[in-house]
Task: structure prediction
Amino acid sequence: MIPLLDERQRRLFLANEAKSYGYGGVSEVSRISGFSRTTITVGIKELESEPSKFEGKVRRKGGGRHNVLDKYGEVICEYIREIIEGKTYGDPMRPLSYTTESLRSVARQLLEKHQINIHHVTVRDLLKTMGYSKQVNQKMLQVGKSHPDRNAQFEHINATASEYLDLGEPVISVDTKKKELIGNFKNNGQEYRKIKSPRKVLDHDFPIKELGKISPYGVYNLNKNTGFVNIGTSHDTSEFAVESIFRWWKTVGKHTFPKAKKLLVTCDCGGSNGNRSRTWKAQLQQFADRTRIEVQVAHFPPGTSKWNKVEHRLFCYISKSWQGKPLIDIETVINLIGNTKTTKGLNVVCMRDDNHYKLSKKISDKDFEALSLEKDAQL
Result:
């Protein structure tokens, strides 16, 4: 019976058994049930009192453990603020802040400094009511001085992209994903496996010369929510970047946009597709000559790479698809990337690029002046 009853019902049941037993019933029922004599005695008093007095209640008014704020008042919040003062981060004008102190540390200091003994979970609840939350780092601070026309630059890029999309012309976002080691190395993340049978990987991430590294160059098409990744086994150069775009065009682009006359490329202003790279511009000229397509490039301002669509529309899903899985060879990488899909219809094509790309390739002044370049006045 006991597990099926609530607190008051158990108390009354045990009290009734004790009364039925007679003299010594309280002690005997306490011994058999494990409940205290006080609990059984209280139950007997409730049985002998008017039933309506406790009707619909499990405990008498005021019974049970008191809320920590009712017990200590707002002073406990002030004590917590004192403990975490100097270890709190965040904009004071925003409603949420966060602290580097652990919950157990705060609870321990409350006991040591103020003789307040509360559980660390209670500390968590109090911090939440005080406007604190657990947060990760956020890349928001720009290195260097922000351009005064930063918003106008983004508005112009957005308007240009919208214009291309409305006309049905292709818009792509490009970038190189971080280089990955090939081999049986640990890959961040988890995967489902049989209990107590984790995948065994090498204990050090030293590059294996025979396997090397890969440079995945991504092309994300905003029109169709499709991705293309060119897996380079050589250096990440401007020549490699434009070759990746050309492979996308041959494999996907020209079949998806057979009547395309223009192409908009959005990208970061650094790396292999940097805005100051002569090789990048010279290679794009060759691309335009081969495809007979006008190419317009919109570089994002410095420190704003997180707005690049390829980062959070393609690369993040690739990272999820291979989390916890060692990239033991390039074929495995291609299969994992090619199987990347989302509920919103993202599909990814992946191919291998074994071409060798030389570093520090120079473009002479004469060759650079021969390029058909036109600067966008608003970028």
The longest strand covers residues 213-221. The chain has 13 helices and nine strands. Residues 97 and 132 are 5 Å apart (CA to CA). The first helix runs from residue 7 to 21.
